[in-house]
Amino acid sequence: MSSAPPAPSPPSELAYANHYPLDIEPCVPVSVDGLITHVGFRELFVRAHEIDALSVALPPATSGLLRILTAMAARVTGLDKATDVAEWMDRRYDLLEQAGKFDRDAVGEYFDEHAGGLRLHDPVRPFLQDPRLATECASSSGANKLVLARPAGNNQVFFGHFTDAEPAPLPPREALLHLIVQLYYGPSGQCTPRTVDGQKYGNSRGGPLRRALSCHPMGRNLFETLVLGIPEPSLWPQGERHTSGDSCPWERTELPDPLHAPGVAAGPLSLLTEQYQHAVLLRAAPDRDSVVDATITWALRENRPPVRDPYLIWDEAKDGTVHPRDAKAERALWRDLDALVLQNRGGESRRPLIFEGLSGSQLPEPVFEGLRVIAHGFDQDGQTRDRTYFSATTPPLFALLSSFGASGDTDLAGGLKEGREAAEKAAWRLTAALRSAWRAYTTPFAEERAGGAGRSSAKGGAGAKGDGPWPEGALSAYWPAAEEHFWSLLAREDFGDAVTSFGRIALEIYDDVTAAIASEPRGARARERTRGLVRSLLDDGRDR
Questions:
Q1: Hey, is 473 helix, strand or coil?
Q2: Residue 353 in 3-state DSSP?
Q3: CA distance 105 to 179
Q4: pLDDT per 10-residue tile (average), the chain, 544 residues
Q5: 10 Å Cβ neighbour count for 245?
């Protein structure tokens, strides 16, 4: 009996190979058993239970890509359809406990259906791009503008010698990541002008995640990470934005009207994938092996209606408004840990909504015990200045914080806040004491000019010479030591002596920093006069 002829290759692989189909091309870097490899979207979902995590070197791209892949995961699992919370929770529990991986047939069906919208260089439906920019923009923005670390226009060169006259082309898989960064973290202000229906504008609003700290649940593998990242129905916005219901941009053929006021997101898919304010169009080289140009401009003239992104920490300002917590490169993730886990923080401030449904009773025990948090931040201002980006991961800690789903916070969860506040109090006193000691030491006869021994220049009086080098150097030593001590307190599940123990760390660093002046009369006097500000922390802790 003769063997059957081989099945023909799918059309996307033959007719559209030069359009860079993202479902097939190895475009996403992932870690498998500690080794980095690249996979297409199809392979990523089929092998998600074998993949440790995404391995993208660009944290803001990881943040945006996680939202895109999570929306796809909701589609593949059907968790975008169940609206009853109890039913939804049961289905997720079964997925995590019994299936443990994405269904191969469901993955194939999804990417077969939407392959047309997943081609990076498609002339009609390029992935997450607007093909109308080819005619609506008289000029392009340049490949350098696409990459936030490159200088563009008249900006100075800092990170590499790139010029608009000779822009370095980008491999398509790198251009994909920078495209995602532009849509989620792009700047506000002046941009390449775009003309729509005779109306020309050259300014845009900032991306939806600009300068925000994005925090995601992280499982033992990528399958768990994506499933745990799907928002539960109670967190879905209820807008009626599209006649076809809630969907992702690559799932539709119609493009949004740039001059039309946008509506509220229709559900979890548009919440995760369609909050952008920028429109982008990449231009490939003739052989389509690289991206040589890009146009970046405005997508809408009006702001999208506000929605609560489920991965952001929300803080209440003094005027009562609620805003996402800013990403600050100098602030380690452990200092935001209480904001990630505490239910009761006062006012409208609250932890990321995604963690509301991650309790021991709602997850299989092995999944719950391995659950961590990964945070991606882009330290930016609200307009055009980009400073630096970073990622941080916590150890498995949710098993210690069993308050999820309960009515209140455990003592240990409350201790996180006490520990963080004690560490910050010690840092403040260390800084203030060193600032005062430096001023007293470097300003001769400051007391006499101030009118007596009781009126020194410790608060910046006459003759003070600024903060000096001591505070910055001390904090660079203090914060790593404080972080290590914080995790040890958490491991012991005891924050009772946090004030005293962080005070000891601060006092030791104070003594080390000022040791060089201890042998001089004026130095010893300045050192001892302000040492008590730190030393008193030990007494404060005993009085608690």
A1: helix
A2: helix
A3: 30
A4: 42 60 96 95 97 94 97 96 89 93 96 96 95 94 82 44 64 95 92 94 92 93 97 82 74 92 89 94 89 94 90 84 85 83 64 84 89 90 80 80 52 82 94 91 61 43 63 92 91 88 94 89 88 87 54
A5: 12
Cα torsion 452, 455, 460, 461: sign = negative
Alpha carbons 492 and 487: distance in angstroms, whole number:
9
User: What are the tokens at 245?
Assistant: 């219901």
Are 386 and 380 within 8 A, CB to CB? yes
> Amino acid identity of 304?
R
Collapsing DSSP to helix, strand or coil, 471 comes out as helix
Q: Are 276 and 183 in contact (CB under 8 A)?
A: yes
Q: What pTM does this model have? A: 0.85
The number of beta carbons lying within 10 Å of the beta carbon of residue 26 is 14
Token pair recorded at residue 72: 């796809």
CA angle 466, 468, 470 (to 5 degrees): 145
In this structure, which amino acid lies at residue 64? Answer: G
Identify the CA nearest to 287 among candidates 169, 178, 180. Answer: 169
- Total Cβ atoms within 10 A of residue 328: 15
